[in-house]
Amino acid sequence: MAPDAPTTLSIVIPVHNEADYLPGALAELFEEIADVPASITVLVAENGSTDGTAQAVRELIGRYPGLSLLELPTPDYGAAMREGFLSTDGEWVVNFDIDYFSADFLRSVISIGEDADLVLASKRVEGADDRRGNTRRFATWTFNQVLRFVLSSGVSDTHGMKAIRREVVDHIAAEVISTQDLFDTELVVRAERAGYRIAEVPAVVEEKRETKSSLAKRVPRTLNGVWRIRRSL
């Protein structure tokens, strides 16, 4: 890459049954990232939707340069993230959710540049502002303790916005066995164990709408998934 060439960022957003929410959210996203000094593409990884989500994305592609669609048949957030990561070619691959994104995070990634291989937006490091309810904050803290004791991870937060350098995706993603809730967690832990450099930056977290996933249903699934990761490492 030429010395003055802009950083290339490939944003991957897994979505499932978001036809109504998606047009407004994408409008907000593209407005927010318009001033970020980088070459940015946005890939919406639609997985198993039944409400016309894919068609909603197709109708918006002409409006937003750099927007593209990946369609997958099965509802699986982690699998959609993996396929999206592998389908992009940016210098950095960025994971956003349709209701959780930040231009400031992208600026942090650009600023960190060559000093890290993964950049994690943490809800728990100094300077973070987690405005969610007590139950959600406690769940994040508990999950982090599980990662520390079961997987010996030293990072403070694996769920949320993250940017991963292309070579890390190429090296690690194919080894990840987890889908659903834990693809990104396993990817981060495997990268950590492989010696890649991880930077954590403080995040501002404020829920824009009621969460779609049940915490009660996710807890046992997540704990079982963490044990599967441990056995596979």
Can you list the strand order of the major beta sheet?
3-2-1-4-7-5-8
The name of the CATH superfamily reads: Spore Coat Polysaccharide Biosynthesis Protein SpsA, Chain A
Work out the number of β strands: 9
H/E series: EHEHEHEHEEHEHHEEH
Name the CATH class: Alpha Beta
Secondary-structure class: alpha/beta
Our Rg estimate from Cα atoms comes to: 17 Å
Name of the CATH architecture: Alpha-Beta Complex
Q: What name does the CATH topology carry?
A: Spore Coat Polysaccharide Biosynthesis Protein SpsA, Chain A
Helix content: 40-55%
How many angstroms does the end-to-end distance come to? 35 Å
Sheet having the most strands: 7 strands, mixed
Strand fraction equals 15-25%
| SS element count, helices | 8
Number of domains: 1
- Report the average pLDDT across residues: 89
Low-confidence stretches: none
What coarse outline follows from CA principal-axis ratios? globular
List the helices and strands and how they pair.
Blueprint: E1 7-15, H1 22-33, E2 38-47, H2 53-61, E3 67-72, H3 77-87, E4 92-95, H4 103-112, E5 118-122, E6 129-130, H5 134-151, E7 162-165, H6 166-172, H7 183-193, E8 198-202, E9 204-205, H8 215-232
Account of the 3D structure:
It contains eight helices and nine strands. The chain is α/β, with parallel strands linked by helices. It has a seven-stranded mixed sheet with strand order 3-2-1-4-7-5-8. A two-stranded parallel ribbon has the order 6-9. Helix 5 runs parallel beside helix 8 (215-232). It is globular, with a radius of gyration of 17 Å. The N and C termini lie far apart (35 Å).
